[in-house]
Design a protein that fits this description.
3 helices; globular; about 0% strand
Amino acid sequence: MPPLQTILTAVLTEKFEVSPEGVLPDATLESLDLDSLALAELALVLQEELGVKVEEHEAAQRTTIGELVAVLHSERTGQDAL
């Protein structure tokens, strides 16, 4: 499976029409013009794509791409341990 950063970039560019150049580790979800509705949809899409639950506070407007990738990694690692 591709790295989580690659998957997240693909989701943001394909489903939310975010420019791939904008998907940098220090970019916030707000800076990518994702409003609260888009963030809720993003959480659902990531759950479908990766099989991990993303809590609302983990995908907030101030969350950076790097932080979200870390959360996704942590969630996937935790599931692998089960």
